[in-house]
Amino acid sequence: MSIHLIVLAAGEGSRMESDHPKVLHEIAGAPMIAHALGVADTLEVSARVVVVGHGGDTVRAAVLNLDEDIRVFEQPEQLGTAHAVSMAAPAFKDATGDAVVLYGDTPFIRPETLTAMADARKNGADIVVLGFNAADPARYGRLITDGNTLTRIVEWKDATKAERAITLCNSGVIMAEAATLLRLSATVGNDNAAGEYYLTDIVELGHAEGLTAKVVTCSEAETLGINTRADLAVAEAVFQANARHEAMVNGVTLQAPDSVYFSYDTHIGRDAIVEPNVIFAPGVTVESGATIRAFSHLEGCHVGSGAVVGPYARLRPGAELSNNVKIGNFVEVKNAQIGDGAKVNHLSYIGDAEVGADTNIGAGTITCNYDGVFKHKTIIGKRVFIGSNTMLVAPITIGDEAMTATGTIVTRDVPDGDMAIGRHRQENKTGLARRLFQKLRAAKAAVKKG
Ligand code: UD1
Ligand code: CA
Q1: What is the pTM of this model?
Q2: Which residues are catalytic?
Q3: For the segment 241-258, what is each residue's pLDDT rounded down to a tens digit?
Q4: Does ligand 1 lie within 6 Å of residue 223's CB atom?
């Protein structure tokens, strides 16, 4: 199936109470319109077109940022869904094949559903409308059928009492030959209760010409539209429930699925184990057999197979953990490659760094990568032992099999095999502690008496 996608995103209709366009509010780390356009990842799509509202520059920029091949058209005034479709006409001048209309605020239409609609087209329907049986049909448009033919769609505002009693509702998704869709959209009038050019009217217009329209149905959850922050939270929950289920189907152990949050692009390999309360922000890949322990936060990073991360670890963008790496509690890694089998187990910050294979980074180590203006790099070789509480003042290079003594502030490169010690030599004052304790305890007793 090769099809043109038209995503409508011009209308306000939003009660988000926000300074930002509705379709840019995020679900699982991606703008909701990116989810709507996401069907193009699995289906063969010949073109993607988005219709934005007047001054829709931020939406345009966000859409082009997703893919600069997407064509964006402006609908200067929101005169209705048919009018919005007409705005995209220049994209379809010589287009052959079908087009489908989606809404930017309806993010969960599945590729399988569009395929079912395409099948209905192949089986002879000129226009295919996606419907659903609404638990509460509220103000949705109602689908008027005659046998298994769709004859008309009536908007709630224009419906009679009998029509409002119908529970088969319009999702808004419509598929037809691109030329038919554009032609009929251009001919609908606005003589209705809302004074709008309704895309839904193309069914009745088509019917009058002898074209046939059919309904394909999907679950109500799939047509979930977002108008409020509460709807957004519901959409997020729906996404997460699906993502958790999918991860488990793909062989990932989730000890407490409801407490794990995925992004739209999270990839986790087979036999990985994810403990409770883990967050995968965008851009994370975890290879098979890795373990992500409780309360870890991962973003823009890659975790090699057999690696163990956390509990309480933070992997920031550019963290690349090779196989069998160990990142322990209260460790932050940013823009750093950690070689096979290396360990950073406790209370450390490794940023803008390379750490060689089998190196051990002691507790409390910091790569001092920032001088207030520039970021600098730390390079640590293979099989190095970095003592606890080492400050690595970048730019700095530590050679293979070198060591740093605990508490060292490393400001000069350390050659292979050398030991860096940079700290004050210790002195013991004989009996001083005992004398000091006596003095302090006496002072405390005097305060209590008085
Ligand atoms: C629309 C359908 C209704 C269906 C419902 C499902 C029509 C006439 N009605 O009603 O049958 O049950 O969706 O949610 O199509 N838009 C524009 N430009 C416009 C108007 C709308 O781009 O001038 C976009 C909106 O951004 C939105 C979509 O089209 O993404 C739907 O518009 P909306 O005003 O929400 O339509 P509904 O009244 O909900
Ligand atoms: Ca709506």
Answers
A1: 0.92
A2: 346
A3: 999 999 999 999 999 999
A4: no
